[in-house]
Amino acid sequence: MKEVIQHEKLGEIVYEENFWTGKKSLQVNGVRLQKTNKKTFVTESGEYYVINGNYIQGAVLAAGEETVRLTQPVKWYEIVLSVLPFLLIMVWGNVVALCEIVPVVGGLIGGGISAVLSCLNLFIIKGVKPIWLKVVISIAILGVTFGICCGIGYAIIAAAQQNAAFFIEKPYSFIILTPDCLKCSVTSSSAFVITRS
Predict the structure, then answer these.
(1) Taking the CB of residue 79, how many other CB atoms lie within 10 A of it?
(2) Which residues 6+ apart lie within 8 Å of 93 measured at CB?
(3) How high is the pLDDT of residue 166?
(4) What residues are paired with 184 via a beta bridge?
(5) In 3D, which of 20, 25, 55 has the Cα closest to residue 38?
(6) Can you give the pLDDT at residue 133?
(7) pTM (whole model) above 0.85
């Protein structure tokens, strides 16, 4: 993410911040400033520039008596639009009645996929100006998220059905010992048989 600001006293300010790592760089009037710590930059003449905030909170540059807003903070509706893919997958993937309609992977896998795509959505829509375009992009990312998680859900069901068919065709028997001294026998021709050991 790169912002170019024209300031009447400081001149041209070029601020860059990596959304994923948070690494920042600053140029004033075409001269790249040296970074002394996470938030402070210094010129060759010894002037200090401090950047408070970040891409999400909104970055503000303090240079002596001057303060310059470098980026706007995230608006509440951008957060709502970005969280929708995550919420949809976490709710849909963990409600059995909904998964019977369309199977969607939830839990850790679905949560991870939807969280990454939610962050990507926030990054994209924060750089877009028209609100209607933010909504369209968010709906598209919501559809992509749902499609990926739905595809994984169908793949898991297909794999489970293949394995179930394998076990039904081949007779098997094994014993599961539980911590409370119950012995469970499982065979292909019967349900769980539980006996006290």
Answers:
(1) 13
(2) 99, 104, 105, 106, 107, 110, 149, 153
(3) 55
(4) 176, 194
(5) 25
(6) 96
(7) no
Three-state DSSP string of the chain: CEEEEEECCCEEEEEEECCCCCCEEEEECCEECEECCCCEEECCCCCEEEEECCCCCCCEEEECCEEEECCCCCCHHHHHHHHHHHHHHHHHCCCHHHHHHCCCCCHHHHHHHHHHHHHHHHHHHHCCCCHHHHHHHHHHHHHHHHHHHHHHHHHHHHHHHHHHHHHHHCCCEEEEECCCCEEEEEECCEEEEEEEC
Cα–Cα distance for residue pair 42/34, rounded to 1 Å: 5
Q: How far is CA 51 from CA 15, 24, 31, in A?
A: 10, 9, 17
Q: Which regions in the chain score pLDDT beneath 50?
A: 171-197
Assigned token pair, 51: 């950047």
pLDDT score at 177: 41
